[in-house]
Amino acid sequence: MATRGSGPSSPPLTAARPGRSRPVGSGPSALITAWIALSAGLMLAALYAVFFVAPSERTMGIAYKIFYFHVPTAIAMGALFVLCGVASLAYLVQPDRRLDAAGAASAEIAVLLGVVVLTTGPLWARKSWGTYWTFEPRLMLTLLTVFIYAGYLAVRAFGGAPESARRSAAVLGVAGLPAYYFIKESVNKWGGNHPKNVVYGDGEGLGNPDIKRAFLIALVAVFVLAAHLLWLRYRTHLLSARLQEALREMSEYDLLEDSR
Amino acid sequence: MNASWSTGIESAIAPVLMQQAPAATQAGVEVKGLASDKPNLSKEEVPGGPLMIAAYAVMWAIFFGFLVLVWRRHGALAREVRRLELKLDERIGDVLASEDRTGKGSTR
Known about the structure:
- The complex is a heterodimer.
- Chain A has helices spanning 29-53, 67-93, 97-128, 137-158, 162-189, 209-252.
- By secondary structure, chain A is mainly α.
- In chain A, helix 1 (29-53) runs antiparallel to helix 6 and helix 2 (67-93) packs parallel to helix 6.
- Chain B is mainly alpha-helical.
- Chain B is 73% helix and 0% strand.
- Chain B contains 3 helices and no strands.
- Chain B has helices at 2-12, 14-26, 48-102.
- The longest helix of chain B is centred in the C-terminal third of the chain and has 55 residues, at 48-102.
- The termini of chain B are far apart.
- The chains are: A mainly alpha, B mainly alpha.
- Chains A and B meet through helix 2, helix 3 and helix 6 of A and helix 2 and helix 3 of B.
C-alpha cells in the first residue's frame, strides 16, 4: 500500500501535489503551430530573396550566397553566447531552475550554430582565400569559444553530482563572455584574412538594396529559427527537471515499482 | 576517397558552373572588403558552386536534424511526465477515498 512515504520526512501523500494546474507539455499548440509556420515562411522568403532577388557578386560569384546565412548564423551564435553567459552569471548569484535551463539551452543552440558557422566559413574561405582554414585570430577565437561552450555542455553531462556540475558549467559559461568579445574585436585589433566592415562597413558595404534586403530577411529568419530551437530546448530542460521531481515524489511514496 | 567524391560532385554540376562563371565575373555588383589582398594566400580559381551547395546542404541538415531530434525528445518527455503525474493523481484519489471511508479525512 502506498499511502505513506517510507522516508521519515515524507509529508502525507494527499498533500504532495500542491498547486499543479495543467498537464506539463500540453503547451499552447496554436502558438507552436504559428511559430513553426513563421520560421518556415521566413526561411522560404530568405531563400527566395537570396537566390532570385539579390544580384550576383562580382568577386565571389555564386559562393557569395554563403554569406547570407553564414553571417546571420554567426550573429545569432554570438547573441546566444552572451545569453548563456548572462544566465550562467545569474545562476551563480541566485541558483534557479529556469536560469539553469536558459543557460543550458542557449549553450546548446550556440554550439549548434557554431558548428554551422565553422562549416560554412571554411567553404567561403576556400573560394576567397584559396584555403579552407588559416590560423588567424578570428577563426581560432571562434573555434576556441565554441570549444568553451561545448565544454560547458560536457561538464553538465558528465560532471558528476548534478548541482555541482551545474555550478561548474555556469563558471565556464561566464568565462566564455570575454572570449566572445575578443572574437568581435579580433579583426579590428589583430587583422587577419577575415573580412571586416562588410555589413556595417564604412565603404560600400551592403550598399545594394537588394543585397541588403535579402541579408536582413535571412537575419530575421535565422534569429526566429534560433529562438524556436532555444525555446524548445528550454522547455525540454524544464520538463526533464519536472520528470526527475515526479520520479522522486513517486519514489518517496513507493509508487515507482508499479508505475511501469 | 574524399578527392574522388569532391571531383564527382564538381563534374556532376560542371554545366551549371560553366554557365555561372561568366555571370560572376562580368556582371553583378561588387561588395567591398570581400576579396583578400593578403599575398600569402592562393589566387587559385576555385569554382564556387560546389562550395555553396555543400554549405547549404550542411546547414539545413544540421538545423532540421536537430529540430526533429528536439521535437521527438520533447514529445517523449512530455508523455512520460503526463503518465507519471496521472499515476500519482490516481493514487492520491485512492488515498483520499480510503481516508473518507475510514473517517480519517480530517487530516487533509
